Amino acid sequence: MKKLLPVFTIGFFLCLMSCKETKKESRDPDVGFIEKIEKISDSVKVEGIVIKNLFKSQILAHQGKEYDSTMIIEKVYRPHQKLWDNCYGMIFGEENSHKFNTTKGMVEWNRTLYPENKTFFNERAETLLDMNIDSVLEKNLTRFNEMVPYKIESTISILFTPIEGILFGGCENDEFCIELNYKGRDIDYIVEKGLPHELNHLAYEPLRESDPKKNTALRQTIDEGFACYFTWVFFNGQIPKYEAVENMDENDWNWYLANERKLFNELKPYFDDESGDNPLLRNDRLQLFENAPKSLNYWLGFRIIEKYVEKNGADSWKDIYEMDVDKVLQESDYENFINTLP
Predict the structure, then answer these.
(1) Who's near 173: CB < 8 A, 6+ residues apart?
(2) Integer Cα distance of 328 and 334 in angstroms
(3) How far apart are CA 57 and CA 214, in angstroms?
(4) How far is 142 from 146, CA to CA, in rounded Å?
(5) Inter-axis angle of helices 133-147 and 217-234, to 10 degrees?
(6) Strand order in 154-159's β-sheet?
(7) Which of 73, 98, 252, 308 could form a disulfide with 293 if both were Cys (CB 3.0 to 4.6 A apart)?
(8) What are 274-305's pLDDT values in tens digits?
């Protein structure tokens, strides 16, 4: 807290001190913001899941008289070195790997990234401050561990990066991240409602190793649909179903409902496809529905899971973790439901 200036009786000193105080304020307009950033935890951990607020040190490294390169190394690079070395170092190609898997590279791009994007990055940070990021993370991680019978270990970092490429995801359970620098993305939605979705993938996907159809489009559809349905259950059905499905809008949801039978009949032949290049996973391959909204397989997977739960009981979504995807489809009676539609 700023100390109060002493009171002087001489007008000149009153004026002089007033001017100095005014100049100090003009030089340091972000003092309240920075104090809030400093109070954010370096990380939040609940059982086997830890989320690291690396963005905090990426901002604070620029608040002294000189850029604090040591903070970048010790508070940004080292705490999640596997993410930087392995995941970022791999997915952005050999020509960019040195930016992430060396201390020199990390120091160099962090030297300019925040100053060049200060207004936008501060807005992103303000959003996290407004939502009380530490509390939201702890609450959601606690609820996830209470709901899911399969415990996971994961390390996720919230960060700024010079190259957009992940948004929310990663390469291994301990190499996950949430990128804050995607423009046009609702970052509070991603952090709060995207977190249960991604964590459910981490719990579900290792259990698919023995699934005969683990590499098929049907598996991807059930996987994404289950993550969306889990998100809806996670928030006790208090968010609309269309929001739980990749935050699509209500018009898109209603479009899918209106075309549900035709869509299923056209897409069913691709359930066993393993190429990834099919209309179920790529909307641009749909011949009858050129203007289909985004998230087609997410929506269809959600509907299959929804029908399974309607048939088998409110808590039966927990069965999905151990069921082969073809069995989920069969026991959902989704196809029989489709045949009742006009």
Answers:
(1) 152, 153, 154, 155, 202
(2) 10
(3) 40
(4) 6
(5) 110
(6) 43-46, 49-52, 154-159, 176-179, 168-170
(7) 252
(8) 998 888 888 766 666 777 888 899 999 999 99
SS (H, E, C) the chain: CCCCCCCCCCHHHHHHHHHHHHHHHHHCCCHHHHHHHHHCCCEEEECCEEEECHHHHHHHCCCCCCCCHHHHHHHHHHHHHHHHHHHHHHHCCHHHHCCCCCHHHHHHHHHHHHHHCHHHHHHHHHHHHHCCHHHHHHHHHHHHHHHCCCCCCEEEEEECCCCCCCCEEECCCCCEEEECCCCCCCHHHHHHCHHHHHHHHHHHHHHHCCCCCCCCHHHHHHHHHHHHHHHHHHCCCCCCHHHHCCCCCHHHHHHHHHCHHHHHHHHHHHCCCCCCCCCCCCHHHCCCCCCCCCCHHHHHHHHHHHHHHHHHCCCHHHHHHHCCHHHHHHHHCHHHHHHCCC
What are the beta bridge partners of residue 52?
A: 43, 157
Widest distance between CA atoms in the chain: 91
User: Could you report the per-residue pLDDT of 171-204, keeping only the tens digit for each?
Assistant: 999 999 999 988 878 898 888 889 999 999 999 9
| Residue for token pair 């705490």 | 79
Which residue in this structure is represented by tokens 């970052």?
187
* pLDDT average, residue stretch 10-24: 34
Residues 138 and 44 sit within 8 Å (Cβ to Cβ): yes
- Residue 220 token pair: 């991807």
Alpha-carbon dihedral of residues 112, 113, 118, 123, nearest 10 degrees?
-170
| Cβ atoms of 69 and 61 closer than 8 Å | yes
Signed CA dihedral, 289, 290, 293, 299: sign only:
positive
Helix-helix angle 217-234:296-312, to 10 degrees = 70
Q: Which amino acid is at 159?
A: L
The answer to whether 248 touches 299, Cβ cutoff 8 Å, is yes
Please tell me the distance from the alpha carbon of residue 241 to that of residue 302, in angstroms, as a whole number: 9
Please answer whether residues 38 and 71 qualify as being in contact, where contact means their C-beta atoms are separated by less than 8 angstroms.
Answer: no
Kindly state the tokens that stand for 154: 């994961």
At position 144, the amino acid (one-letter code) is F
Query: Is the CB of residue 326 less than 8 Å from the CB of residue 218?
Result: yes
